[in-house]
Amino acid sequence: MDEERFVAESRGSWDRLARAVEAARKDGIARLDVAALRQMHYDYRRTAADLAYAQTHFPGTETTAFLNRLVSQAHGELYGSRPGRAKAFRHFILDGYPRLVRENGRYMLISAVFLFGAVAFGFLVAFIDYSLARIFVPPQFLDAIGDGAAPGGDVADETAALAPLLSAYITVNNLTVSFTAFAGGATFGVLTIYALVRNGLLLGSLAGIYEQADLSLTFWSLIVPHGLLELTAIAIAGGSGLMLAKALAFPGDKPRSVALREAAPDAVKVVLGTIPLFIIAGLVEGFFTPRGVDPYVKLLVGVGVWVVVMAYLLFAGRGAREEPA
After folding, report:
1. Is residue 246 part of a domain?
2. Which domain holds residue 8?
3. Secondary structure letter of residue 68 according to DSSP
4. Which pLDDT value is given to residue 82?
5. How many domains does the chain have?
6. pLDDT exceeds cutoff 90 at 107
7. Considering the entire predicted model, what is its pTM?
8. Higher pLDDT, 117 or 87
9. Which of 181, 192, 301, 317 has the least CB density, counted as fewest CB within 10 Å?
């Protein structure tokens, strides 16, 4: 085979590999979807074989030099050194993750509607039917509160004393709910929605109970500093579960197993990205919330941290082209 024919027959896979290398350099190898990464591996192996052939039959030519550069670049992206991977990880955290969240924003929005809708409903139920609201409250707190937080009750001291314990309980509960909401995608989203609604009813009912005990400020000053971040993380995790549920319920013309495999990488990245939010919330809950700071300052700090996080999710990485949500 002469060189011209060799180039003509293989040029398509070389160009495709070159485009994949450029995309990996721009956005990080982690941003490539499963099909694109599989194609890149295939084109890399084929181009490496072409390089071996060219070195034997066309040594010293421009074709051989081009293939040598291309194979070296592709190898660096696919099997890069630790510094390269660290750079890609940094890029994903600063740009890739918020873009990924925005690209799948409709799922996060649906998740937030279920979560915060349940919070509002639980809060209203505490005023309309106090006995019904008590169903959503953990038994250990019901035993301590009793009926004193009901309209006309008088257990303000006892209810205030429970507030720090409630804060810690809600933190642990939120972390559990977050990953339950993600895993619930495998149940076509049924468990995801249940986890979101159940958690929202818990928080809303507690807020209503404390409101009726005239301890609303005490309650929210303990919850808001870390709770806003945790609730945001839960809404995102719920969105990742709904991404899986959508692939299972509406796979299109693909088998469900294929649709799920294609949706899973992005969904996993989305839910793993909530871990830093829980870490930040845990630090706030452990080192700031218990301090004897004015409740309004606690509220201000909590809202301020949340605004910074939301600005990151909504605006970071907007310099690069995004897919529509």
Report:
1. yes
2. 3-80
3. H
4. 47
5. 2
6. yes
7. 0.69
8. 117
9. 301
